[in-house]
Amino acid sequence: MTVRFGTFDAETWWRPADLAELPSVGGDDPAVGAMDELLLGFCAPDDLLITRYPMHPDLLTGHRVRHLSVDDPGPGPVERFIDPNLVHGAEVAPYAVLPDTSRLVGASLPPSEVVAQVNSKTWSNELVIELGLPGAGRVVRSPEELVTAVTELDFRALVKDPYGVSGRALLEISTPGVLRAVERVLRKQDRRVELLVQEKLPKLHDFSGHFLLHRDGTADFLGLQQMTNKGFRHLGSHRPPASLIDESWYAESLGGVIDALAKAGYWGPVGVDAMLLADGTVVPVLEINARQSLGLLTLHLDQRSDLTAHLWQLELNVAPGKGITDVLQAFDGLLSTGDGPGVLVLNGSTLAAPGGRVYLAIFCRPDDLGQWQRRLVTAVDTAGLTPRGMTDAA
């Protein structure tokens, strides 16, 4: 039995409190606090899943797992509220290692300060420079350095917080006016500046490579995921076509990354974000996620059958009184846990008016994905749950 739990906004708890913040471009997403429901997709029979909030029992149908939610969760990571007796002596698989995770579990996990270090975009950028890989950026430590770096890129610049995630705390600065606005925000804060400035490159595809790094420094390469993004926000992932990139070559190209992570004292799951440029150049390391990830979840779901698992987000307008039960009823006859074509609803217990997003795993042949997406959209629309912000296949 494995005990699974975790906090999906892990970067918030790794981020030093004295760092200046970029201007907000959307604020916090309250749904992130309930995204630990997605860990159900990792669970094997008889695993114990602990979530922050109670899960709707219909989401657990067909899964032979034990489930508990913490009592009266307050602010902070879910690990802060888990009974230590539930994890004592058990095999644990947290989403990420935070200071509260280390206090809960102990020495069977890498030190939280090491995990925080290797998840920083500053650390990964220094590694890219050291390894001589394409796509390196520039770390700036003052408003003046930011102005210089963006100007030298002729305003083809992306500015990233070292602990930003999935489009949050990332800004594209393409005009002098935007640069001046960001500079003003930074100068008003009596905090330390540390930002990564990267050139906005002519991207063709986003993808990620995943491996499991063992405590002895060896690693198992798990596979690739092609990602779909809306702007800079991750929307989904799936197994890429063989023509996208040579998987064996890419796995070998991460040798230096594996060595550096092991030398730093990390072990556990790793996802490396990368991209393919329009001219065929591969940028093998954009950033390193030394934790579990949605791409890793999709890889795990993909092993359930010969069908391809496609992770997809469905954003819905929800009328008062409606919620996840209505979504599941709308998909009546279309549901699957991977043994046949269909959809697995991965979260949504807290879905309520005025709306939110639900993660789905669609199991089908690659060529059938568009057809399945249209069927699902039609189903929820007919049930009075209006889809919004629709995108193509994830």
- In percent, how much strand structure appears in the residues? 25-35%
Number of helices: 12
Report the radius of gyration as a whole number of Å: 21 Å
Helical residues, percent: 25-40%
Task: Report how far the terminal alpha carbons are from each other.
Answer: 32 Å
Let me know the largest β-sheet: 9 strands, antiparallel
Mean pLDDT, all residues: 93
Oligomer: single chain
* Structural class by SSE content: alpha+beta
H-E string = EHEHEEHHHEHEEHEEEEHHEEHEHEEHE
**Quantity of strands, as a count:** 17
Describe the structure.
- The protein is an alpha+beta fold and 394 residues long.
- The chain folds into 4 domains: 2-109, no CATH class; 136-199, Dna Ligase, domain 1 (2-Layer Sandwich); 202-298, D-amino Acid Aminotransferase, Chain A, domain 1 (2-Layer Sandwich); 304-385, 2-Layer Sandwich (TATA-Binding Protein).
- It has helices spanning 10-14, 57-60, 99-105, 112-119, 121-131, 143-152, 176-188, 247-253, 255-264, 294-302, 324-330, 369-382; strands at residues 2-5, 48-51, 66-69, 91-94, 138-140, 157-160, 170-173, 195-199, 203-213, 219-230, 233-238, 268-277, 282-289, 308-317, 342-345, 355-364, 386-388.
- α6 runs antiparallel to α7 (176-188).
- It comes from Kribbella albertanoniae.
